Amino acid sequence: MKNNFLRAPLQNRPVLKVSLLLALILLSLWIATFFPKIVIAVIISVLVSFVLRPFVKFFEFRWGMRRVVAIPIVFVLTGGLFAVVAVKVVPFLVDRVRGLYDRFSQFPFESRLHQLASDFAEDIPFVDPKALAEKIQSLLTTATQSVGGLLEDLVPLLIALAIVPFLTFFILYEGDRGLKK
């Protein structure tokens, strides 16, 4: 009886119900701003679980496996697929990057930059070729430093993404039950 008493006011007041839901969503978003990397990991986990869910269902219903067994099998198969792709693709990409680096390190960058600035200054008389070359050099240095900063930010993100398999397992394991409740 007490339970119906608490539900009755919300059922008769949709504006109050929507307002409470909106307040809960806004509060959740505000709290999420303090933990952005964890929020990213949760979002990735949900997306991965949506992708892997059909495979888990296949093993569960087609082969009669329990869900707790089907999920690790799907993880192992998916991980194996990624491992094979990594073994085949990563060395190829490393060789390409190494080749680009070798070509870039042998490139006479300073002389080419000054030559380009001089050619540009010939066409536009009010441009100082030395100042233009220095400006381009400083822009490239800033871009290189930005890439270094990006790589520094990548490590904590990868650590946060280490929780993705665990979250994905529990989302897949409790997925249907959570939707039914």
Distance between the termini: 21 Å
Taken as a percent bin, the fraction of beta residues is under 5%
Specify the number of helices.
7
Gyration radius from CA atoms, angstroms: 28 Å
Low-confidence sequence ranges: none
Approximate shape: flat
Helix content: over 70%
Largest sheet: none
Features:
181 residues; mainly alpha; 7 helices; 0% strand
Molecular structure report:
The chain is mainly α. 89% of the residues lie in helices and 0% in strands. The protein has helices at 2-11, 14-32, 36-62, 67-106, 109-123, 129-161, 164-180. Helix 3 crosses helix 4 (67-106), helix 3 crosses helix 6 and helix 3 (36-62) crosses helix 7. The longest helix is centred in the middle third of the chain and has 40 residues, at 67-106. 7% of the residues are buried. The mean pLDDT is 78.
Brief overview:
The chain is 89% helix and 0% strand. The chain contains 7 helices and no strands.
Summarize the SSE layout with pairings:
Layout (H helix, E strand, L loop, with lengths): L1 H10 L2 H19 L3 H27 L4 H40 L2 H15 L5 H33 L2 H17 L1
